[in-house]
Amino acid sequence: MDFVLVHGTTQAPSGWDRLVEALARRGHRAHCLDLAGVPPAAPATAYAEHALRWWADRAPTPVVVAHSGGGALLPALAQALHASHQVWLAAYVPDFDGGACLVEDVGVEPEAVVNPEWVGQDPFADPVIAAHFLFHDCDLATLRWALGTLRPFPAEAVHRHRPSADPRAVPSTYLLPVDDRVLRPDWMRRAAHERLGAACVELLGGHCPHVARPESVADVLVGVGRRTDRTP
């Protein structure tokens, strides 16, 4: 089974390494899409084209997984790659029905969507900030490794782009870490229900469960993949 992993706005593709290894131990292939090859001013459609060129002639109908701010691109990427399923890992879900971009959506009721303590913080300048908000549930060895995966992903144009791809066009599962210190768990539950009509799987831990609990995330992904696999 093939999984495409889409990083968020705070980590490089290397942030998926522990999950890639966990999936490999279960006999599955994970491919990490790097969004940095697209100019920051490009719209969501450019990222979909980038993903399609990168995927080329690889296996059809992968499961596409997006983390955090990568969720703004997930519908376009999943549809471009003809995904069998899309998985939202502590990810923003676009407001397709309301037509609001991420910036507008968060601006309407910011404290309902995002932890106000996170707003304005710079995890790249201060490892204490990164540890507190992103990796607070990691053991020390994992934390040291995780801090090395930090990389900003400037996607201002995407965050200001009104969603054009319906997130309900591909079946979804939402993975919700109940101790998230970035996105509000109540908002994630509501978004999964109202914007996706999707099952919500709740996990222990914080905003980066693929870092702190890769085995648990891999088990959920493999279960999702088995239910949706279309290959012979």
TrEMBL record:
The record's Pfam families line, in alphabetical order, gives: Abhydrolase_6
What keywords would UniProt list here? Hydrolase
Q: Which SUPFAM superfamilies match?
A: alpha/beta-Hydrolases (SSF53474)
- AB hydrolase-1 domain location is 3-220
**Molecular function terms in GO for this entry?**
hydrolase activity
UniProt-listed PANTHER family = AB HYDROLASE-1 DOMAIN-CONTAINING PROTEIN-RELATED, ESTERASE_LIPASE_THIOESTERASE DOMAIN-CONTAINING PROTEIN
Protein's name according to its UniProt entry:
Alpha/beta hydrolase family protein
Identify the species of origin: Streptoalloteichus hindustanus
